[in-house]
Amino acid sequence: MNIHKQVTTTALLLMLFATIGAALVGFIYDHTYETIKQNERQALLDQLNNIVPASDYDNALLEDSFELAPDVLLGTTEPITAYRAKKQEKTIAVIFPAIAPNGYNGSINLLVGVYRDGTVAGVRVIRHRETPGLGDAIETSRSDWITHFTGKSLGRPPGKQWKVKRDGGEFDQFTGATITPRAVVKSVHSVLLYFEANKKILLQDEVVDKGAKVAKDEKDVDTKDSHEEQKDTGSSSDTDESGSSKP
Amino acid sequence: MNTEQQTIIKNGLWTNNVALVQLLGLCPLLAVTSTFINGLGLGLATLITLVLSNTFVSIIRHWTRPEVRIPIFILIIASIVTAIELAMNAWFYELFLILGIFIPLIVTNCSILARAESFASRNPVLDSALDGFMMGLGFLLVLILLGGLREIIGQGTLFSNAHLMFGPAASNFELSLLGDDYPGFLIAILPPGAFIGLGLLIAGKNSIERFRSKKVILVSAPSRPAEASVS
After folding, report:
1. How many structural domains does chain A have?
2. Residue A34 lies in a domain
3. Which of A225, B15, B38, B212 is the most buried (most CB within 10 A)?
Protein backbone atom coordinates (compact mmCIF):
# COMPACT_ATOMS: atom_id res chain seq x y z
CA MET A 1 0.00 0.00 0.00
CA ASN A 2 2.65 2.41 1.06
CA ILE A 3 4.76 1.71 -1.97
CA HIS A 4 1.81 2.37 -4.28
CA LYS A 5 1.31 5.72 -2.70
CA GLN A 6 4.97 6.53 -3.05
CA VAL A 7 5.10 5.62 -6.71
CA THR A 8 1.98 7.64 -7.45
CA THR A 9 3.25 10.76 -5.73
CA THR A 10 6.57 10.48 -7.50
CA ALA A 11 4.92 10.09 -10.87
CA LEU A 12 2.55 12.96 -10.23
CA LEU A 13 5.43 15.12 -9.13
CA LEU A 14 7.33 14.43 -12.31
CA MET A 15 4.21 15.10 -14.35
CA LEU A 16 3.68 18.38 -12.58
CA PHE A 17 7.16 19.60 -13.40
CA ALA A 18 6.90 18.41 -16.98
CA THR A 19 3.66 20.35 -17.35
CA ILE A 20 5.13 23.51 -15.87
CA GLY A 21 8.19 23.23 -18.09
CA ALA A 22 6.12 22.64 -21.21
CA ALA A 23 3.83 25.55 -20.34
CA LEU A 24 6.80 27.87 -19.92
CA VAL A 25 8.34 26.86 -23.23
CA GLY A 26 4.96 27.08 -24.97
CA PHE A 27 4.38 30.56 -23.62
CA ILE A 28 7.76 31.83 -24.81
CA TYR A 29 7.36 30.10 -28.17
CA ASP A 30 4.04 31.80 -28.66
CA HIS A 31 5.53 35.20 -27.93
CA THR A 32 8.60 34.84 -30.12
CA TYR A 33 7.12 32.94 -33.06
CA GLU A 34 6.28 35.98 -35.17
CA THR A 35 9.62 37.68 -34.56
CA ILE A 36 11.56 34.54 -35.42
CA LYS A 37 9.64 34.01 -38.67
CA GLN A 38 10.22 37.65 -39.50
CA ASN A 39 13.96 37.30 -38.83
CA GLU A 40 14.26 34.27 -41.04
CA ARG A 41 12.42 35.91 -43.91
CA GLN A 42 14.46 39.07 -43.57
CA ALA A 43 17.72 37.14 -43.51
CA LEU A 44 16.72 35.25 -46.65
CA LEU A 45 15.60 38.42 -48.38
CA ASP A 46 18.89 40.14 -47.49
CA GLN A 47 20.79 37.28 -49.07
CA LEU A 48 18.68 37.39 -52.21
CA ASN A 49 19.09 41.16 -52.40
CA ASN A 50 22.84 40.74 -52.32
CA ILE A 51 22.51 38.86 -55.57
CA VAL A 52 19.81 40.85 -57.31
CA PRO A 53 19.58 44.39 -55.86
CA ALA A 54 16.16 45.33 -54.51
CA SER A 55 15.97 48.25 -56.92
CA ASP A 56 16.11 45.93 -59.93
CA TYR A 57 12.85 44.10 -59.35
CA ASP A 58 9.38 45.02 -58.24
CA ASN A 59 7.70 41.75 -57.23
CA ALA A 60 7.50 40.20 -53.79
CA LEU A 61 10.56 38.01 -54.22
CA LEU A 62 9.88 35.65 -51.35
CA GLU A 63 6.33 34.94 -52.52
CA ASP A 64 7.42 34.34 -56.11
CA SER A 65 9.12 31.06 -55.46
CA PHE A 66 8.77 27.70 -57.12
CA GLU A 67 9.96 24.17 -56.55
CA LEU A 68 12.66 22.58 -58.64
CA ALA A 69 13.07 18.84 -58.78
CA PRO A 70 16.43 17.38 -57.78
CA ASP A 71 19.04 17.65 -60.49
CA VAL A 72 22.66 16.68 -60.83
CA LEU A 73 23.55 20.05 -62.26
CA LEU A 74 22.19 21.81 -59.20
CA GLY A 75 23.81 19.22 -56.98
CA THR A 76 20.49 18.67 -55.22
CA THR A 77 18.97 15.43 -54.06
CA GLU A 78 15.75 16.94 -52.75
CA PRO A 79 13.34 19.43 -54.30
CA ILE A 80 14.51 22.98 -53.65
CA THR A 81 12.91 26.38 -53.73
CA ALA A 82 14.12 28.86 -56.32
CA TYR A 83 13.14 32.53 -56.56
CA ARG A 84 12.17 34.64 -59.51
CA ALA A 85 12.83 38.38 -59.66
CA LYS A 86 10.50 40.30 -61.95
CA LYS A 87 10.26 43.81 -63.23
CA GLN A 88 6.86 44.79 -64.61
CA GLU A 89 5.72 41.19 -64.79
CA LYS A 90 8.76 40.15 -66.77
CA THR A 91 11.22 37.73 -65.23
CA ILE A 92 14.61 39.40 -65.06
CA ALA A 93 16.52 36.88 -63.00
CA VAL A 94 16.20 33.50 -61.32
CA ILE A 95 17.97 32.68 -58.06
CA PHE A 96 18.85 29.03 -57.49
CA PRO A 97 20.05 27.39 -54.33
CA ALA A 98 22.77 25.04 -55.50
CA ILE A 99 25.06 22.59 -53.75
CA ALA A 100 28.71 22.13 -54.60
CA PRO A 101 29.08 18.53 -53.39
CA ASN A 102 32.86 18.31 -53.49
CA GLY A 103 34.19 20.96 -51.14
CA TYR A 104 37.24 20.25 -49.02
CA ASN A 105 35.08 19.41 -46.05
CA GLY A 106 31.70 18.31 -47.36
CA SER A 107 29.25 20.18 -49.49
CA ILE A 108 29.01 23.93 -49.94
CA ASN A 109 25.58 25.53 -50.19
CA LEU A 110 25.36 28.38 -52.65
CA LEU A 111 22.82 30.83 -53.96
CA VAL A 112 23.37 31.52 -57.64
CA GLY A 113 21.45 34.25 -59.43
CA VAL A 114 21.21 34.12 -63.21
CA TYR A 115 19.91 36.99 -65.36
CA ARG A 116 17.48 36.46 -68.20
CA ASP A 117 20.29 36.56 -70.75
CA GLY A 118 22.27 33.86 -68.97
CA THR A 119 24.87 36.00 -67.22
CA VAL A 120 25.55 35.49 -63.54
CA ALA A 121 23.85 38.09 -61.35
CA GLY A 122 25.79 37.03 -58.31
CA VAL A 123 26.87 34.11 -56.18
CA ARG A 124 26.85 33.83 -52.40
CA VAL A 125 27.80 31.06 -50.04
CA ILE A 126 25.10 30.32 -47.52
CA ARG A 127 26.65 27.37 -45.71
CA HIS A 128 30.01 25.66 -45.78
CA ARG A 129 32.48 23.90 -43.53
CA GLU A 130 35.70 24.81 -45.29
CA THR A 131 38.87 25.43 -43.31
CA PRO A 132 38.82 28.78 -41.52
CA GLY A 133 41.54 31.04 -42.84
CA LEU A 134 41.99 29.07 -46.06
CA GLY A 135 38.84 27.85 -47.77
CA ASP A 136 36.57 30.35 -46.08
CA ALA A 137 37.76 33.07 -48.44
CA ILE A 138 34.64 32.16 -50.42
CA GLU A 139 32.68 34.17 -47.84
CA THR A 140 32.15 37.82 -48.67
CA SER A 141 33.30 38.78 -45.18
CA ARG A 142 36.73 37.27 -45.88
CA SER A 143 37.44 38.23 -49.46
CA ASP A 144 35.70 39.49 -52.59
CA TRP A 145 36.56 36.36 -54.55
CA ILE A 146 32.97 35.22 -54.93
CA THR A 147 31.92 38.51 -56.51
CA HIS A 148 34.11 37.81 -59.53
CA PHE A 149 31.45 35.51 -60.93
CA THR A 150 29.14 38.44 -61.55
CA GLY A 151 28.81 39.13 -65.27
CA LYS A 152 30.24 35.81 -66.35
CA SER A 153 28.24 33.50 -68.58
CA LEU A 154 28.56 30.24 -70.47
CA GLY A 155 30.41 31.91 -73.34
CA ARG A 156 32.41 34.31 -71.21
CA PRO A 157 34.81 32.74 -70.41
CA PRO A 158 34.42 29.80 -72.82
CA GLY A 159 33.61 26.39 -71.36
CA LYS A 160 37.19 25.21 -70.97
CA GLN A 161 38.12 28.30 -69.02
CA TRP A 162 35.48 27.67 -66.36
CA LYS A 163 38.14 26.34 -64.00
CA VAL A 164 40.57 27.64 -61.45
CA LYS A 165 43.90 28.87 -62.78
CA ARG A 166 45.78 25.84 -61.61
CA ASP A 167 43.56 23.71 -63.85
CA GLY A 168 44.15 26.02 -66.79
CA GLY A 169 41.06 28.14 -66.27
CA GLU A 170 40.31 31.74 -65.55
CA PHE A 171 39.40 31.85 -61.86
CA ASP A 172 41.85 32.50 -59.05
CA GLN A 173 42.42 29.87 -56.41
CA PHE A 174 43.49 30.85 -52.91
CA THR A 175 46.88 30.32 -51.40
CA GLY A 176 46.72 26.93 -49.76
CA ALA A 177 43.23 26.08 -50.95
CA THR A 178 42.44 24.91 -54.45
CA ILE A 179 39.75 22.36 -53.76
CA THR A 180 37.25 24.85 -52.38
CA PRO A 181 37.31 27.33 -55.29
CA ARG A 182 37.39 24.44 -57.75
CA ALA A 183 34.17 23.08 -56.27
CA VAL A 184 32.47 26.48 -56.33
CA VAL A 185 33.52 27.26 -59.91
CA LYS A 186 32.25 23.88 -61.09
CA SER A 187 28.95 24.33 -59.30
CA VAL A 188 28.33 27.81 -60.72
CA HIS A 189 29.12 26.52 -64.19
CA SER A 190 26.67 23.63 -63.73
CA VAL A 191 23.94 26.03 -62.64
CA LEU A 192 24.47 27.99 -65.85
CA LEU A 193 24.18 24.76 -67.84
CA TYR A 194 20.99 23.95 -65.97
CA PHE A 195 19.62 27.40 -66.67
CA GLU A 196 20.43 27.08 -70.35
CA ALA A 197 18.74 23.69 -70.58
CA ASN A 198 15.59 24.77 -68.77
CA LYS A 199 15.45 28.35 -69.92
CA LYS A 200 12.01 28.24 -71.54
CA ILE A 201 10.22 27.07 -68.45
CA LEU A 202 12.23 29.08 -65.99
CA LEU A 203 11.55 32.31 -67.81
CA GLN A 204 7.80 31.88 -68.21
CA ASP A 205 6.27 34.96 -66.75
CA GLU A 206 2.76 33.89 -65.82
CA VAL A 207 4.04 31.43 -63.29
CA VAL A 208 2.62 32.79 -60.07
CA ASP A 209 -0.86 31.30 -60.27
CA LYS A 210 0.19 28.09 -61.92
CA GLY A 211 3.00 27.24 -59.55
CA ALA A 212 2.06 23.60 -59.19
CA LYS A 213 1.76 22.97 -62.89
CA VAL A 214 5.09 24.55 -63.67
CA ALA A 215 6.79 22.47 -61.06
CA LYS A 216 5.48 19.41 -62.86
CA ASP A 217 6.61 20.70 -66.22
CA GLU A 218 10.04 21.29 -64.88
CA LYS A 219 10.27 17.76 -63.67
CA ASP A 220 9.34 16.60 -67.16
CA VAL A 221 12.11 18.67 -68.57
CA ASP A 222 14.49 17.25 -66.05
CA THR A 223 13.75 13.73 -67.08
CA LYS A 224 14.26 14.58 -70.71
CA ASP A 225 17.17 16.90 -70.45
CA SER A 226 19.67 15.73 -67.98
CA HIS A 227 21.92 12.93 -69.00
CA GLU A 228 21.81 11.02 -65.76
CA GLU A 229 18.12 10.33 -66.00
CA GLN A 230 17.81 8.59 -69.29
CA LYS A 231 16.57 5.36 -67.87
CA ASP A 232 13.44 7.12 -66.72
CA THR A 233 10.67 6.22 -69.08
CA GLY A 234 8.64 8.92 -70.68
CA SER A 235 6.17 11.24 -69.06
CA SER A 236 6.80 10.66 -65.41
CA SER A 237 5.84 13.69 -63.45
CA ASP A 238 5.57 12.55 -59.88
CA THR A 239 8.29 13.28 -57.41
CA ASP A 240 9.03 9.68 -56.56
CA GLU A 241 10.29 8.78 -59.96
CA SER A 242 12.47 11.75 -60.59
CA GLY A 243 13.68 11.45 -57.03
CA SER A 244 14.64 7.84 -57.44
CA SER A 245 16.60 8.43 -60.60
CA LYS A 246 19.21 10.50 -58.90
CA PRO A 247 22.70 9.08 -58.95
CA MET B 1 28.87 39.81 3.28
CA ASN B 2 29.56 36.79 5.41
CA THR B 3 32.34 34.29 4.94
CA GLU B 4 30.11 31.69 3.35
CA GLN B 5 29.26 34.02 0.51
CA GLN B 6 32.89 34.97 0.15
CA THR B 7 33.70 31.30 -0.20
CA ILE B 8 31.03 30.95 -2.89
CA ILE B 9 32.47 33.85 -4.84
CA LYS B 10 36.02 32.61 -4.56
CA ASN B 11 34.96 29.09 -5.50
CA GLY B 12 33.17 30.19 -8.64
CA LEU B 13 35.80 32.56 -9.91
CA TRP B 14 38.98 30.81 -8.92
CA THR B 15 39.34 27.80 -6.62
CA ASN B 16 36.67 25.70 -8.27
CA ASN B 17 36.37 27.41 -11.65
CA VAL B 18 34.11 25.45 -13.99
CA ALA B 19 36.42 25.59 -16.98
CA LEU B 20 39.90 25.73 -15.44
CA VAL B 21 39.53 23.39 -12.48
CA GLN B 22 36.45 21.23 -12.96
CA LEU B 23 37.10 21.09 -16.72
CA LEU B 24 33.38 20.90 -17.40
CA GLY B 25 31.57 22.20 -20.46
CA LEU B 26 34.66 21.91 -22.61
CA CYS B 27 32.73 21.15 -25.79
CA PRO B 28 31.15 24.61 -26.14
CA LEU B 29 34.20 26.19 -24.55
CA LEU B 30 36.54 24.90 -27.19
CA ALA B 31 34.14 25.17 -30.10
CA VAL B 32 32.85 28.72 -29.95
CA THR B 33 35.76 30.69 -28.54
CA SER B 34 37.19 31.73 -31.89
CA THR B 35 36.35 35.36 -31.14
CA PHE B 36 35.72 37.48 -28.08
CA ILE B 37 32.11 38.20 -28.99
CA ASN B 38 31.24 34.54 -29.60
CA GLY B 39 32.67 33.71 -26.19
CA LEU B 40 30.72 36.53 -24.58
CA GLY B 41 27.48 35.40 -26.21
CA LEU B 42 27.76 31.80 -25.09
CA GLY B 43 29.10 32.85 -21.70
CA LEU B 44 26.12 35.11 -21.02
CA ALA B 45 23.66 32.43 -22.12
CA THR B 46 25.34 29.92 -19.80
CA LEU B 47 25.46 32.43 -16.95
CA ILE B 48 21.74 33.18 -17.21
CA THR B 49 20.96 29.47 -17.39
CA LEU B 50 23.05 28.75 -14.29
CA VAL B 51 21.47 31.51 -12.22
CA LEU B 52 17.92 30.55 -13.21
CA SER B 53 18.40 26.81 -12.85
CA ASN B 54 20.12 27.14 -9.48
CA THR B 55 17.35 29.44 -8.26
CA PHE B 56 14.51 27.18 -9.36
CA VAL B 57 16.19 24.03 -8.13
CA SER B 58 16.76 25.66 -4.77
CA ILE B 59 13.14 26.83 -4.56
CA ILE B 60 11.76 23.36 -5.17
CA ARG B 61 14.42 21.51 -3.21
CA HIS B 62 12.03 20.51 -0.40
CA TRP B 63 9.36 19.20 -2.75
CA THR B 64 11.32 16.85 -4.94
CA ARG B 65 11.88 13.22 -4.11
CA PRO B 66 15.29 11.63 -4.27
CA GLU B 67 14.18 9.07 -6.90
CA VAL B 68 13.18 11.64 -9.48
CA ARG B 69 15.31 14.62 -8.57
CA ILE B 70 17.70 14.27 -11.52
CA PRO B 71 14.91 14.10 -14.14
CA ILE B 72 13.30 17.11 -12.51
CA PHE B 73 16.55 19.09 -12.57
CA ILE B 74 17.03 18.23 -16.21
CA LEU B 75 13.45 19.26 -16.98
CA ILE B 76 14.03 22.62 -15.35
CA ILE B 77 17.35 23.15 -17.12
CA ALA B 78 15.96 22.09 -20.49
CA SER B 79 12.96 24.41 -20.19
CA ILE B 80 15.17 27.36 -19.29
CA VAL B 81 17.61 26.69 -22.10
CA THR B 82 14.84 26.29 -24.66
CA ALA B 83 13.30 29.56 -23.52
CA ILE B 84 16.69 31.30 -23.84
CA GLU B 85 17.22 29.77 -27.26
CA LEU B 86 13.87 31.07 -28.50
CA ALA B 87 14.55 34.50 -27.06
CA MET B 88 17.97 34.68 -28.71
CA ASN B 89 16.50 33.50 -31.98
CA ALA B 90 14.00 36.33 -31.79
CA TRP B 91 16.19 39.18 -30.59
CA PHE B 92 19.81 38.31 -31.39
CA TYR B 93 19.23 36.46 -34.63
CA GLU B 94 22.69 36.80 -36.17
CA LEU B 95 24.48 35.84 -32.99
CA PHE B 96 22.08 32.93 -32.71
CA LEU B 97 23.13 31.80 -36.18
CA ILE B 98 26.80 31.85 -35.17
CA LEU B 99 26.38 30.07 -31.84
CA GLY B 100 23.92 27.73 -33.50
CA ILE B 101 23.84 24.28 -31.98
CA PHE B 102 25.79 25.32 -28.88
CA ILE B 103 22.84 27.13 -27.32
CA PRO B 104 20.61 24.04 -27.06
CA LEU B 105 23.72 22.11 -26.04
CA ILE B 106 23.97 24.19 -22.87
CA VAL B 107 21.53 21.62 -21.48
CA THR B 108 24.24 19.02 -21.68
CA ASN B 109 26.86 21.23 -20.06
CA CYS B 110 27.55 19.09 -17.03
CA SER B 111 28.46 22.06 -14.91
CA ILE B 112 24.83 23.12 -14.79
CA LEU B 113 23.50 19.81 -13.55
CA ALA B 114 26.52 19.53 -11.28
CA ARG B 115 25.72 22.83 -9.56
CA ALA B 116 22.03 21.94 -9.28
CA GLU B 117 22.84 18.60 -7.69
CA SER B 118 25.79 19.49 -5.51
CA PHE B 119 24.88 22.99 -4.42
CA ALA B 120 21.41 24.31 -5.24
CA SER B 121 19.53 21.26 -3.98
CA ARG B 122 21.11 21.68 -0.55
CA ASN B 123 21.32 25.41 -0.02
CA PRO B 124 18.95 28.37 0.41
CA VAL B 125 17.73 30.31 -2.61
CA LEU B 126 19.93 33.40 -2.36
CA ASP B 127 23.13 31.45 -1.85
CA SER B 128 22.21 29.20 -4.76
CA ALA B 129 21.54 32.13 -7.07
CA LEU B 130 24.87 33.66 -6.03
CA ASP B 131 26.63 30.36 -6.62
CA GLY B 132 25.06 30.08 -10.09
CA PHE B 133 26.08 33.63 -10.88
CA MET B 134 29.66 33.19 -9.73
CA MET B 135 30.12 29.83 -11.43
CA GLY B 136 28.64 31.31 -14.59
CA LEU B 137 30.85 34.37 -14.31
CA GLY B 138 33.94 32.20 -13.85
CA PHE B 139 32.99 30.28 -17.00
CA LEU B 140 32.22 33.50 -18.87
CA LEU B 141 35.59 35.01 -17.96
CA VAL B 142 37.46 31.98 -19.26
CA LEU B 143 35.36 32.03 -22.45
CA ILE B 144 36.11 35.67 -23.23
CA LEU B 145 39.74 35.37 -22.20
CA LEU B 146 40.25 32.40 -24.48
CA GLY B 147 38.13 33.97 -27.23
CA GLY B 148 40.02 37.24 -26.98
CA LEU B 149 43.42 35.56 -27.05
CA ARG B 150 42.54 33.37 -30.02
CA GLU B 151 41.06 36.31 -31.88
CA ILE B 152 44.11 38.51 -31.32
CA ILE B 153 46.60 35.82 -32.26
CA GLY B 154 44.50 34.28 -35.01
CA GLN B 155 43.28 37.30 -36.91
CA GLY B 156 44.88 40.27 -35.18
CA THR B 157 41.62 41.89 -34.08
CA LEU B 158 39.57 42.25 -30.94
CA PHE B 159 35.80 42.75 -30.58
CA SER B 160 35.05 41.97 -34.23
CA ASN B 161 31.36 41.40 -34.97
CA ALA B 162 30.42 43.38 -31.85
CA HIS B 163 27.31 44.62 -33.63
CA LEU B 164 25.84 41.12 -33.38
CA MET B 165 25.51 41.69 -29.71
CA PHE B 166 25.32 45.42 -29.09
CA GLY B 167 23.47 46.58 -32.20
CA PRO B 168 24.62 48.61 -35.20
CA ALA B 169 26.19 51.32 -33.02
CA ALA B 170 28.89 48.85 -32.01
CA SER B 171 30.03 47.94 -35.50
CA ASN B 172 33.13 50.13 -35.13
CA PHE B 173 34.20 48.54 -31.84
CA GLU B 174 36.57 46.31 -33.76
CA LEU B 175 40.22 46.95 -32.95
CA SER B 176 42.99 46.02 -35.32
CA LEU B 177 45.64 45.38 -32.73
CA LEU B 178 48.31 43.96 -34.96
CA GLY B 179 47.88 46.20 -37.98
CA ASP B 180 45.80 45.69 -41.10
CA ASP B 181 48.32 43.56 -42.95
CA TYR B 182 48.65 40.99 -40.18
CA PRO B 183 48.59 37.68 -42.04
CA GLY B 184 46.73 35.78 -39.34
CA PHE B 185 47.84 32.72 -37.45
CA LEU B 186 45.61 29.90 -38.56
CA ILE B 187 46.15 27.39 -35.80
CA ALA B 188 44.83 29.77 -33.16
CA ILE B 189 41.43 29.81 -34.86
CA LEU B 190 41.30 26.09 -35.54
CA PRO B 191 40.30 23.62 -32.81
CA PRO B 192 43.89 22.76 -31.82
CA GLY B 193 44.39 26.42 -30.96
CA ALA B 194 41.55 26.16 -28.48
CA PHE B 195 43.17 23.18 -26.75
CA ILE B 196 46.55 24.87 -26.64
CA GLY B 197 45.02 28.09 -25.37
CA LEU B 198 43.05 26.34 -22.65
CA GLY B 199 46.12 24.38 -21.66
CA LEU B 200 48.12 27.58 -21.30
CA LEU B 201 45.35 29.19 -19.22
CA ILE B 202 45.25 26.21 -16.86
CA ALA B 203 49.04 26.20 -16.63
CA GLY B 204 48.96 29.91 -15.90
CA LYS B 205 46.43 29.46 -13.12
CA ASN B 206 48.39 26.62 -11.58
CA SER B 207 51.65 28.48 -11.65
CA ILE B 208 50.05 31.50 -10.01
CA GLU B 209 48.79 29.21 -7.27
CA ARG B 210 52.13 27.53 -6.90
CA PHE B 211 53.85 30.87 -6.66
CA ARG B 212 51.43 31.99 -3.97
CA SER B 213 51.62 28.85 -1.91
CA LYS B 214 55.40 28.89 -2.12
CA LYS B 215 55.41 32.32 -0.56
CA VAL B 216 53.14 31.20 2.25
CA ILE B 217 55.22 28.15 2.88
CA LEU B 218 58.44 30.09 2.79
CA VAL B 219 57.09 32.33 5.49
CA SER B 220 55.77 29.57 7.70
CA ALA B 221 58.16 26.68 7.17
CA PRO B 222 61.01 27.36 4.77
CA SER B 223 62.32 23.82 4.66
CA ARG B 224 59.17 22.13 3.33
CA PRO B 225 59.08 21.60 -0.45
CA ALA B 226 56.39 23.62 -2.18
CA GLU B 227 54.52 20.82 -3.83
CA ALA B 228 50.88 19.82 -3.63
CA SER B 229 49.54 23.11 -4.81
CA VAL B 230 47.95 21.58 -7.86
CA SER B 231 44.28 21.45 -7.02
Report:
1. 1
2. no
3. B38
- pLDDT over 60 (residue A56): yes
Instruction: Please tell me the distance from the alpha carbon of residue B152 to that of residue B155, in angstroms, as a whole number.
Output: 6
Q: Which residues lie below 8 Å from residue A88, measured CB to CB, with a gap of 6+?
A: A58
Taking CA atoms, A168 is separated from A126, A144, A161, B198, in Å, by 27, 21, 7, 44
Secondary structure (3-state) at B159: coil
Average pLDDT by stretches of 10, chain B with 231 residues: 83 86 82 86 91 93 86 92 90 81 83 90 92 93 92 84 74 75 80 90 91 71 46 39
- Going from N- to C-terminal start, the domains of chain B cover 3-185
- A40 part of a folded domain: no
Omega cis (within 30) before A157: yes
Is B52 in CB contact (< 8 Å) with chain A?
no
Q: In terms of residue numbers, what domain contains A88?
A: 54-244
A27 occurs within a structural domain: no
CB nearest B72 (choices: A17, A28, A29): A17
Contact flag A17-B76 (C-beta cutoff 8 Å): yes
